[in-house]
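Late entry, written up from scratch paper. The run itself happened at the end of the previous shift, but nothing got recorded in the book at the time, so transcribing now.
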Amino acid sequence: MRTVVVFSGAGLSAESGIPTFRDSDGLWENHKIEDVASPEGWDRDPELVLQFYEQRFHGIKQAEPNIAHRAIAKLEEKFKVINITQNIDDLLERAGCTNVEHVHGCINQMKCERHYNITNLDGDTNYQCSYLATQAKPVVMGDSCPVCGCQLRPHVVWFGEAVDLGYDKIADLVREVKYNDGVFICVGTSAEVAPASLLIPFFSQVQNKYIVNLKTWPISDYELREGPASEQLPKLVEELLDE
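Output as recorded:
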C-alpha cells in the first residue's frame, strides 16, 4: 500500500471558522501573542491564558470539519495516510482520519505546568512531571496535577517552547514515501517558520509532492495547487484515488 503524508497548517482549518493569528497583525482574537501563547505570558497571568484557551476550546468544539478535512480522510480508502499537523484542533480526527500527529499539541489534552517537555524550568531540572491526559472540559485556575499538585495547562506548544518533531521518524517517513511511490502533500501553511520550514525540505527528494496554498510558493520543486484548501484538495484527492 502506498503511503501518503499530509502536513497541514492553520489554512486547513481556517475555512471551518478557526482563526489564524498570522492574518490579524500579530493579534490573536484581540490578544497579543506574547500574552496568551508564551511561557512569559503564563508566568505573568496564567488566568488570562486559561481564559483565552477556554474560548478556543469551545470555539473548536463548535467548529465542524470542512470538505478539505474530509478529503484527506477519504485518502484512507486506498492509501496508508499519515497526518502531521501544526493545528491544535481535532477536526482531522472528527473527519475520519485515523493517524494524526499534532506537533504543536492538541486542545483536547492537558498537562502539568511542569511537564517534562517544557523547556523553561528556570534550571530546575529535578522538578519535572510527566502528567498528560485527555480533557473533556477546558482547564481553569485551581485544576491541579494529580501527580505533583501543580497547576494544569493546555497541552499546546507556545512560542519559545521546543517542538518535538522527531527528525529520525521524519527521515524514516521520507524513505517510506520515496521507495513505495508515495505522496507528500503540504496544505495550509506559509512554510516561513519551524517546523514547516524544516520539515518541507526533508521531502524534496520525494517524486510525488504537492503544495495546496492560497498564494504562490517559494519552493519551486513542488507542484503548486493554488487556491483554497476546500477547492483544491478534493480535486487532488480524486486524482490520486483514480490513479
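The mean pLDDT is 89.
(Scratch paper discarded after transcription.)
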